[in-house]
Amino acid sequence: MKQIVGAFIFPEVWQRWSRDEACSKFETLRGFGINTIFTESETYRDDLIDLAHEMGIRWFGGIACFSDHSHDQQLLKDRPELWPVLETGERRPQMEWYVGVTPTIEDYNGSRLALAERLVREHRLDGFVLDFVRWPIHWELELRPGAPRPLQSSFDPHTLARFQSEMGVELPDSLSDTPAKAVWILKHHMTEWTDFKCAVITAFVEAVTARLRALRGPDITLGLYALPTSSEMLEALAGQRVSDLAAHVDVVLPMAYHAILHRSPAWVGEIAREFGAAAPSKTLPVVQVDSAEGAEAGADWGPPVSVDEWEMVAGRALEAPGTLGLVAFTGTSLFRGARGERLGAMLSVS
What we know:
Elements: E1 4-8, H1 11-14, H2 19-31, E2 36-38, H3 46-54, E3 58-64, H4 74-78, H5 106-122, E4 127-131, H6 139-142, H7 157-167, H8 178-188, H9 190-216, E5 221-226, H10 231-238, H11 242-245, E6 251-256, H12 265-278, E7 286-288, H13 292-296, H14 307-319, E8 325-329, H15 339-349
Parallel strand pairs: 1-2, 1-8, 2-3, 3-4, 4-5, 5-6, 6-7, 7-8
Helix pairs in contact: 2-3, 5-9, 9-10, 12-14, 14-15
């Protein structure tokens, strides 16, 4: 696969663009070395996809699988059985904009599969990337150094029934409430609980990618976003087992947002190398360009990122062995200062 240099652009940005404005933006991004637009939405504009193609830029779409943040959690209000239940027995609270959706409810999972299939059928997408394809965790806050241990979920009745059935584990009759059941599982069957979580996510990814490949064959690149942490934490908290997931996708995209996680530029290289070893020739790091857009949106994206720091981050991602390139998060941050120009200079040298 040829090098991918991507720019992730939120749909609320490109949905407002006129054709002329989009043409100007694409032309500038192309000058920075960008060859692929990344985004995710439940609706797409074919005029912009076609324009990108005319300018030699690919368009990768995607959807949020197990999160309803774009609808202000309305799904959870309408269907409370989808609300993740913590090991305390309480519903997972909203953190900033995020709650998450329990990934074990079959009809909901089927609806996301159907949505992905419809979008790929109706639009000329070059790629499709699954986002929020994990068990609930607001990792941008919960994986920061010094943060409290993230609580496990979901211990709702449906998930507990599936866990027992699929893993051959029987809960003692003496466990009368959810916290007691959760404590018992995490103490006595943590391995089975982790394997179960990974199996749920892998099965969903396998089902979606099989359906999309049946539609488009090799004409579409399929991928998923992964949490930037160790394999042990990734499996236990998110249910993402990279070795299993990589068998079903073309690209694995670790979201190595260093400023959001209060990490150094060198950490980006560590994450890129770790994923590159787990998914060689399939790893595509997503790296943070700046923090300003987060503050503007009311979210905590960490401390400011200087232009020099961005250049270091991009360099760490591009030089890591086993990687395919990088995706700039966000693409519109490349227009700030000389960030885009620095990326273009690095790519012309490499």
